[in-house]
Specification:
Layout: H1 4-7, H2 15-24, E1 29-33, E2 40-41, E3 64-72, H3 79-88, E4 94-95, E5 108-109, H4 123-128, H5 131-146, H6 151-155, E6 162-167, H7 173-186, H8 203-212, E7 218-219, H9 227-240, E8 246-253, H10 258-266, E9 296-304, H11 305-310, E10 317-326, H12 339-352, E11 359-363, H13 370-383, E12 391-393, E13 410-414, E14 418-425, E15 429-436
Parallel strand pairs: 6-7, 6-8, 11-12, 11-14
Antiparallel strand pairs: 1-13, 2-12, 3-9, 3-10, 4-5, 8-9, 10-15, 14-15
Helix pairs in contact: 5-8, 12-13
Length: 440
């Protein structure tokens, strides 16, 4: 799989949202159409005429805009560099070399090899913290820098009106695993005092708040792959209720350790293509066999339009709305009748004030699992059955009724009107968020 953001959807990471926000910042969006990520066009005959759009939010105090983005990825810590690698179709997957994989069924991942925290994480914390939280601190601070909310700007702001909602699926897995191994060897009396606080999933938001001095709402959400979307939705709600002006929201994860790889492999979630890791993630392909483990962090700065205008912020995109539902079906398998997903997509559009006819881009969950891919596709087809043209990335091997654009190894201009991003997690957690180019 060449687009790294797709490798990370099943780790509650950021790729789809970072790419989405980046795409929406341009009048014409370049969408990669390499062999691994062909954009699909669903064409239904006799499509119905476009209907009037529902009413969108007009109050600048309640309109939510994206003013900053920050990330840590296999391609580095720079959003523009990351985006460029996506457009080039650069492969971020390879064999794991940070630990011995001889006894593991899966030996490859989207592993970060070069990570720079200097200037973002103090030396003591850099030595002590789990990678999950180091990634979060760097991505969070870079997002604030991107939004022109660096230390000098924050000093003059009311930081009780700035909060953080950054989630994780498993949190500080490395430090927890390491400390437990030491406890087994040395006994309980040698337990590290950070064994309990450091691994828990709220540490990302907590550490950002402590480091930067944010006194607004600060907590985490953990809904497996749906986490980041849930955080965006929660952050937006705080802004819309007038509780804050700015929220830092997103996800972080660092699960590439032996227990992380072995655990996800045990539940048959990971691809076993050790001989060709660059072809392992293959959404909707007949031979798909699971996702590829990745790591990193992706964080957005969300704020009210009113606040962004007052401070002269550069607006990247607009967050229109979102929704969360539950399949109430199975721990790892999706609901076959797709009701959980379709209701989530429908509710997200209702919250955003948009109609299905306005949506012309779907950033799919697309985890390359046998059951998950076809379930998501069926849900998308059910919701957008009367839409004449919609593009989905990370999709191939669709049903015969669907006409697909199969132009390989080229980039294609596509002007996005409204985009939705799907993320679905273990436990039946469904989340969909809606973005659009900012319009005054």
């Amino acid at each position: 799989m060449k687009l790294y953001h797709e490798l990370l959807t099943d780790q509650v990471i950021y790729g789809c949202l970072t790419l989405l926000a980046r795409l929406l910042s341009q009048c014409h969006r370049l969408l990669d159409l390499d062999q691994a990520t062909k954009l699909q066009r669903m064409t239904v005959m006799n499509a119905s005429p476009t209907v009037s759009a529902p009413k969108r939010e007009k109050d600048p105090k309640k309109r939510i805009v994206i003013s900053g983005m920050g990330l840590v990825s296999v391609f580095g810590n720079d959003v523009d560099g990351f985006y460029d690698k996506l457009l080039r179709g650069t492969n971020g997957v390879g064999m794991i070399d940070r630990f011995n994989t001889s006894e593991l069924a899966v030996k490859f991942a989207g592993q970060i090899h070069e990570f720079w925290s200097e200037g973002y994480v103090d030396q003591k914390s850099d030595r002590r913290l789990d990678d999950c939280w180091r990634y979060c601190l760097v991505a969070g601070k870079k997002a604030l820098e991107s939004a022109n909310l660096g230390p000098q700007q924050l000093i003059s702001m009311d930081r009780s009106r700035i909060g953080a909602v950054v989630g994780a699926g498993v949190g500080g897995l490395t430090i927890f695993s390491t400390k437990i191994e030491k406890m087994i060897k040395r006994g309980y009396h040698k337990l590290c005092p950070f064994l309990v606080p450091c691994p828990i999933t709220n540490m990302g938001s907590a550490l950002l708040a402590i480091d930067i001095g944010l006194m607004g709402p600060s907590y985490s959400i953990s809904t497996a792959c749906a986490t980041s979307n849930c955080c965006f939705l929660a952050a937006a709600n705080h802004i819309r209720k007038g509780e804050v002006d700015v929220m830092i929201a997103g996800g972080t994860e660092a699960p590439i350790i032996p227990i992380g790889i072995a655990g996800f492999s045990a539940c048959r979630a990971l691809s076993l293509r050790n001989a060709e890791p660059d072809k392992a993630s293959r959404p909707w392909d007949k031979a798909r066999d699971g996702f590829v483990m990745g790591e990193g962090s992706g964080i957005l700065v969300m704020e009210s339009l009113e606040h962004a205008r007052i401070r002269g912020a550069n607006i990247i995109a607009e967050y229109l709305g979102g929704a969360i539902t539950c399949d109430a079906h199975h721990v790892t398998e999706p609901r076959p009748d797709v009701l959980g997903i379709t209701s989530c997509i429908t509710r997200s559009m209702e919250d955003a004030g948009v109609s299905p006819e306005e949506v012309n881009y779907v950033n799919a969950h697309a985890t390359s699992t046998p059951a998950g891919d076809i379930t998501e596709l069926n849900a998308i087809k059910e919701i957008f059955q009367d839409t004449s043209e919609i593009k989905i990335n990370a999709t191939k091997n669709l049903e015969p009724e669907v006409t697909i654009d199969t132009v390989p190894n080229v980039k294609k201009y596509h002007e996005i009107n409204v985009a939705i991003s799907n993320s679905f997690g273990f436990g039946g957690h469904n989340s969909v968020v809606v973005f659009a180019p900012f319009q005054t």
